[in-house]
Structure formats: structure tokens, C-alpha cells
Amino acid sequence: MSTQDIFSAVLAFDEATVTAKTQAEIDAGTAIDSILNDGLISAMDEVGERFSAGELFVPEMLMAAQAMKAGLELLKPHLAEGQGQSKGVVVIGTVKGDLHDIGKNLVAMMMEGAGFEVVDLGVDVDSEAFVRTAAEKKADVIALSALLTTTMPSMESTVKAVKEAGMATRTIIGGAPVTQAFADQIGADGYSADAPGAVKLVKELLVA
Ligand code: B1M
């Protein structure tokens, strides 16, 4: 038994085995980070490489995503740092035109686990919805995810809309094609390469 079994089950689009193997690793006391990174996330990276190579197509990517989500749900309670009073409100979503939600869901889970109140707007979210919801919820942070180079401009328009609305709400961005340089270029308040980093970033922004 190892995280390699989880990796293989995601690549076989075998949701039942992903669930069983993930639970088995949790029960065996395997580090949650290792289950997540070596089992689930690395399998999705492999799926992406096979897609780029023309060996897999969109329906297979979708089945792999379903299998990964099943494993992620089991990890959710273990990603929590502890409960208590809300540390702040974070409105999160995948930007307009983009339907990828696994990374965004992971960031949302970790934010919740760290004690933030998270309002998840889902995928394909336009600037107006981010601004309106952040105002309604008195959000401290708007967190934007994008997985496509073609949807990165939606991040720019959302950051611009937040500034034009004169809101104090901070904006953070992340997702595979996104970089610190892009965050600087569009005037976002922060960038993180991964979900734990996004939590750390929000904590830093809220004390600054
Ligand atoms: Co798509 N897809 N996809 N896809 N897909 C990618 C992103 C791609 C890199 C694959 C490839 O070509 N190698 C490529 C993008 C190329 C590019 O633009 N550079 C691609 C493409 C081209 C497409 C379509 C256009 C394919 C088509 O239709 N011809 C299409 C677009 C649809 C759309 O969005 N409009 C499409 C569709 C899909 C599916 C729907 C089938 C499915 C998504 C299902 C779902 O999410 N519910 C899918 C999948 C599964 C992938 C790959 C294989 C896996 C993505 C994933 O979930 N990774 C992906 C290849 C890859 O990324 N290796 C690919 C696991 C997840 C945990 O990682 O989301 O990166 P990730 O999140 C990370 C970090 O990025 C970060 O934290 C997480 C780790 O801790 N992070 C943040 C994410 N958001 C953050 C926000 C933050 C901070 C950190 O702060 C706010």
C-alpha cells in the first residue's frame, strides 16, 4: 500500500479505488501532505501531460478530476487547523471563462480549515459577481483562481473592478499559469503557487 496506488487509481479514473486507497492511507497514518501531493496532485499533473501529448482527451480529464475530487473530500477534515471564531471573510472563485475548480476547492478547504469564513462562488465567475458578493459579505479578501492562459485577463478585469469600486478588499490570485510577475503587473495584492501558501498569504495580508 502506498500513495502510488492512489496515483494509479486516479489515472485509471477509478473513483471507488481512489476512495478506498485514500481512506486506507489516512487510517495508516500517512502524512496528509504526502497523500495530497504524491497521490492526488501528481496524478493530475500526469493527466495534464498526457493531454498535452494527445494521449488523453477532455472526457478522460473530467473522469480523472471526478476521481481526484473523491479523494480530496476525504482529506477535507484533515486539512483543518482548528475551529473557533472566524479569522476573516474570503470570497473565492474561478474567474470568468474558466471551469477548472479542483485547485480552487483545495484553496477554499484550506482557508476554511484555517478558520476563515469562505464564500465560494464556484466557476466562471464574472467581475461583477466578485465585487457584489465581497461588498455584501464585507469580505477581507477576494481570491481568484485561473488554470487557463486565456482566462488570466479575467483576473486583471476583476482586480481593476475591485479598485474602481473603491473597496478596501484585498485581491489574491493563483493557478497553474499564474505568476508573481503577473500579480504585480495587474496590481493584485498577492500571489501564491499553492493552497497552503494562499492561506499563509491571507494571514499575512490581514495583519499588515
Ligand atoms: Co483542463 N487544461 N481544459 N480540464 N486541465 C489544463 C489546465 C491544461 C494545462 C492541460 C494541458 O494542456 N496540459 C490546459 C491549459 C493550457 C493553458 O491554458 N496553459 C487545459 C485545457 C487546454 C483545457 C480545455 C481548453 C480543453 C479543451 O476543451 N480543449 C478545457 C477548458 C474548459 C474551461 O475551463 N473553459 C479544459 C477542461 C478541463 C476539464 C473540465 C475536463 C477538467 C477540469 C475539471 C474540474 O476542475 N472540475 C480539466 C483538468 C482536470 C485539467 C488538468 C489535467 C488538471 C487540473 C487540476 O485539477 N489539477 C490540467 C493540467 C494540469 O494542471 N496539470 C488542465 C490539480 C489541482 C490541485 O491543481 O488547479 O493547478 P491546480 O491548483 C493548484 C495550484 O495551481 C494552486 O493551488 C493548487 C495546489 O495547491 N492554485 C491556487 C489554484 N488556484 C489557486 C488560487 C490561489 C492560490 C493558489 O489563490 C487565490
Automatic annotation (TrEMBL):
The keyword Calcium does not apply. GO terms for biological process: homocysteine metabolic process; methylation; tetrahydrofolate metabolic process. Transmembrane segments: none annotated. CDD domains: corrinoid_protein_B12-BD (cd02070). PROSITE patterns: B12_BINDING, B12_BINDING_NTER. The keyword Signal does not apply. It comes from the Bacteria. Gene3D superfamilies: Cobalamin-binding domain, Methionine synthase domain. Residues 87-208 form the B12-binding domain. SUPFAM superfamilies: Cobalamin (vitamin B12)-binding domain (SSF52242), Methionine synthase domain (SSF47644). One of its GO terms (cellular component) is cytosol. Pfam families: B12-binding, B12-binding_2. Keywords: Cobalt, Metal-binding, Methyltransferase, Transferase. One of its GO terms (molecular function) is methionine synthase activity. Residues 1-87 form the B12-binding N-terminal domain. PANTHER family: METHIONINE SYNTHASE (PTHR45833). Belongs to the methylamine corrinoid protein family. This is Corrinoid methyltransferase. It comes from Desulfosarcina alkanivorans.
